[in-house]
Amino acid sequence: MMPYDFSHKEFPYDEDEQANFYESCMTVMWDEPWFGGFFWWDWYTRLPKNSPEMGFSIVGKKAEDVVKRWYAKNR
To answer: What pTM value is reported for the model?
Structure first.
């Protein structure tokens, strides 16, 4: 509901929701001849050392695997 507002700790952490969003973006856009890729927000300059955290970054989360799989495809 408010992915930008991390002060609401009562909202459940849902890694699948993030991965599903990335998957849907790639599915819809991939075959468009003008599509060259997305600017994905937010990639850390220092990778987290522990388990994935709530936040925008896809590092170490299911959405990272989605992005890797799509960008490994030939067009």
So the answer is: 0.75
